[in-house]
Design goal:
3 domains, 11 helices, Rossmann fold, Glucose Oxidase, domain 1, seven-stranded mixed beta barrel, alpha/beta, 25% helix, ten-stranded mixed β-sheet, 395 residues
């Protein structure tokens, strides 16, 4: 089945449909990662966006529950150069069993859907159909990526139903993605707890949290309570948590006014750690400002420099906004910068027991260079706890 992409600037691409048929629209962005497509599809930070993968072949290892970062895919659409949908031909003699695949195959040269058979996985195409995600393959993703790099992210649509001209007219009637409060679309509707042990009790303000952030804390023994994004500060402080984590999430941070207000009231009363959108929310709560990047940072190979350690780390990133460093002069200390463009990648305010990073220390997908930040978070919690105990002892 044929499919087309229409961009806000009038550009039309023609390709082949895979996944679900239909029509979708969103902000067209690109991700430079070579693997991790299922983590990308299910990352709530991509809500409202159509994601283009720059790596040419996608789908060759299927999909599985272990790779999901939320219950369902959150992207609005998916664009790839070539989608892997069938396995290679295997020469099987008689009823020989292929031990690697665990299959009994009677017919030689039979096509095998590897996406379904390897380790209980299913094909990417089937996974997208089941979750009603509209996707397109067979287009020049290099050309599309260059266009976004040169002109910036823009609104676009994928369709198996309408012509390019019809889509361009429809695009004019759909709102700009940055005007939407996307956090409300992805935050949990009720609080729930993930217990990893008898360690610190962490309140996680869910702005669109990835599963592996929660698991990174649970693996370190934390008891994590995931809260809706609009939970008031008074309620959080009344529950005797040891700390608060502001999670990643989608969209313009300025739209999440409720989260900014909550964070402002928490500062100085409880340790705070922000990741990605949470980093931007912390900056806004401090009185800083944010701005939209031309094409964002999305991929698993972004270098950041730790200014305290004078070291460079490779990180996983997924954000379209950045913190204005000048707006934080006298309010926070910059701890990390992006080694490519110099944008702010980390903050700390020691006197308020607060710090944040723009990148993803949990990776998923990507390198684990920055995973130590979760340990640093726990150390900061312990330091604050020890100081509080000392105050009580000296009273």
């Amino acid at each position: 089945m044929k499919a087309i992409i229409a961009l806000q600037d009038g550009t039309i691409y023609e390709g082949n449909s895979f996944g679900a048929p239909g029509t979708t629209w969103g902000e067209v962005v690109f991700n430079t990662g070579m693997t991790g497509y299922q983590e990308i599809l299910t990352d709530p930070s991509y809500a409202g966006q159509i994601v283009t993968l720059t790596y040419p072949l996608v789908g060759n290892y299927g999909t599985a529950d272990e790779f999901t970062e939320s219950d369902l895919p959150k992207v609005r659409g998916f664009i790839v150069r070539e989608a892997f949908t069938r396995g290679p031909r295997f020469e099987v003699r008689g009823s020989d069993k292929d031990e690697g695949l665990g299959l009994d195959i009677q017919d030689s040269n039979k096509d095998i859907d590897l996406g379904f058979y390897i380790q209980g996985r299913e094909a990417l195409d089937k996974y997208l159909k089941q979750n009603n995600i509209i996707a397109i393959e067979g287009i020049d993703t290099r050309s599309l990526t260059r266009k976004i790099r040169q002109h910036g992210v823009m609104k676009g649509a994928i369709s198996t139903e309408y012509s390019g001209g019809e889509l361009l007219k429809m695009l004019k009637t759909w709102p700009e993605v940055e005007t939407l409060d996307l956090v409300r679309e992805v935050t949990t509707k009720r609080a729930y707890t993930r217990t990893g042990g008898i360690g610190p009790e962490v309140a996680l303000l869910d702005l669109g949290v990835k599963k592996d952030i929660v698991e990174s804390l649970a693996r370190r023994g934390c008891r994590v309570t995931i809260l809706p994004a609009d939970t008031p500060a008074e309620k959080i402080l009344s529950c005797d948590f040891d700390s608060v984590l502001l999670s990643n999430g989608p969209g313009d941070p300025r739209k999440a006014v409720y989260a900014i207000n909550t964070t402002r009231k928490l500062l100085g009363k409880i340790p705070v750690f922000g990741i990605c959108l949470g980093h931007q929310i912390l900056a806004l709560a401090l009185g800083g400002s944010t701005y939209k990047l031309k094409f964002g940072h999305r991929g698993s190979n972004h270098p950041v420099k730790d200014l305290k350690k004078d070291r460079v780390f490779m990180t996983s990133q997924n954000h379209g906004y950045a913190v204005d460093d000048k707006s934080l002069e006298g309010k926070a200390r910059i701890t990390f910068i992006n080694a490519n463009d110099g944008t702010v990648e980390g903050l700390e305010i020691p006197e308020l027991a607060a710090f944040s990073v723009q990148f993803h220390p949990e990776a998923s997908p990507g390198p684990n260079d920055a995973a130590y930040l979760f340990d640093e978070f726990l150390e900061r919690i312990k330091c604050v706890s020890d100081k509080e105990k000392l105050k009580v002892k000296n009273m």
